[in-house]
Amino acid sequence: MNILVLLAGVADIRFPLHTLSLAGDGQIEEPASARRVLSPFDEAALEVALKLRDARPETQIDVLLLAGANSENLLRTVAAFRPHSLRQLELVPTCLWDARLTAQQIAALIDRERLAPDLLLIGREFGDLDEGSIPVLLACRLDREQFSLAQYAQWSGDTIRLIRERATCEEWLDVDRPLLASVTNDKRNKLRHPLLKNVMEARRMNFAKASAPSARPGALSLVGLVAAQAAERRGACRMLEGDAMQQAKALLIWMKEQGVNL
Question: Fewest 10 Å CB contacts: which of 27, 66, 201, 235?
Fold first, then answer.
């Protein structure tokens, strides 16, 4: 079983957000001091792959990690889990806000290098954009079916079984063909801590790069980048007291006072 994991990283919320700027070619520039970490969804996708390898050591895990600020540290973090291969993914140009272009670049790289993983795992949100369209478009580009919001995976005989919860039901899917699964975080896929000896070894590693250029014209270009203005809060905040029924009655009275016709 060959598993390909795509990781991107997000801004580290333990530190103040760094300032972004827009270069003349429309690319976003980040300072060298920017700090990034694996998102909960990145970690979940990686942990799902690691659990499958725990059960079947012959499982091969290959990882592509998006280039960018602090990518060297992120590569060392992932290397400590000893994937079969780990490379820095360089999108040329890097326009993550253009999900169609990004999916096309990654799919072209996978096809060009004939990676052909049995299972492709990607966090439900690739990077910091918080919109989740890249996994969907990537599945379309690769002509693969997609299993979204996967929470867990396990072996069922010689077949991988993906699991997710929908409303009050738990859905299971046996992977009987090449598939893309977007992974969400769950207590069952919380990323483990690597062994200390592997952490020390990762500090001495050098990492290869995988370039995914695109000559497609018409990429969405950003023409401006400024700090968002904080929304002004108006009016006083009133806390509703009592049980749910009392709160509902108080809310109904307030809405009628505001002229809302129910």
Answer: 235
Q: Is residue 230 part of a domain?
A: no
Say whether 120 sits in a helix, a strand or coil. Answer: strand
- What are 248's two structure tokens? 């509902």
Give pLDDT tens digits for 10-53: 988 887 776 777 777 667 777 767 788 999 999 999 999 999 99
Helices and strands (H, E) in the chain, number of each type: 6, 14
User: In the numeric block, which tokens belong to residue 92?
Assistant: 């040329």
CA 29 to chain centre: 21
What's the whole-model pTM score? 0.84
Q: β-strand 36-37 against 10-11: which pairing, if any?
A: antiparallel
For 219-244, b/e burial (b = at least 16 CB within 10 A) is eeeeeeeeeeeeeeeeeeeeeeeeee
Range of the domain at 59: 2-211
Domain count, the chain: 1
Task: Give a yes or no: residue 253 inside a domain.
Answer: no
Domain membership of residue 174 (yes or no) is yes
The tens digit of pLDDT for each residue in 94-110 reads: 888 899 999 999 999 99
53 within domain boundaries = yes
Name the nearest CA neighbour of 214 among 109, 88, 124, 79: 109
